[in-house]
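Hello support,

Our group uses your service weekly, and this is the first time we've seen a run hang past the timeout. The protein is SEPP1 protein. I'm not sure whether the cause is the sequence or the server load. Input pasted verbatim:
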Amino acid sequence: LCLLQASRLEDLRVKLKNEGLVNISYVVVNHQGTHSQKKFHLLKESVSEYITVYQQDEHQADVWTTLNGNKDDFLIYDRCGRLVYHLGLPYSFLSFQYVEEAIKIAYCENKCGNCSYTEPDIDDICENITKKADEKLAEIEPKPRGQHSSHHHQQRRHRHHH
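Update from on-call engineer: The timeout came from a worker crash unrelated to the input. Re-ran successfully.
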């Protein structure tokens, strides 16, 4: 994770917290290489104390190899510890919405049923997130023209979860 990505991850963490998504664990895994190890302190300074920066030892098995991933990937786990999304480049760039949306889906979907890790207000928080997403879609939808423009055609967009 480069320094820019790390600072964007911090921004995303704050954004999600402000939207009510709490108790999310973030871990940045620093590369094993000597160059990355020398920049460890800069990486750690790019994020708050709420994001763990893990420094791999150069003699241990590489974390990314163990996880079948690459250096810039995002692995998103649900509250039960199951891998929900594995996003690689270019989908892992935080300037896009893929990582944020994947975190929100993993947070809001109740795939593992009743769970002691579920936040008490999760239904309200997730309903609010869905409503905001629907409003954004409505803003960019083309308006009907011609003779039917006086009729209101209500379209509901449903998110398809995979």
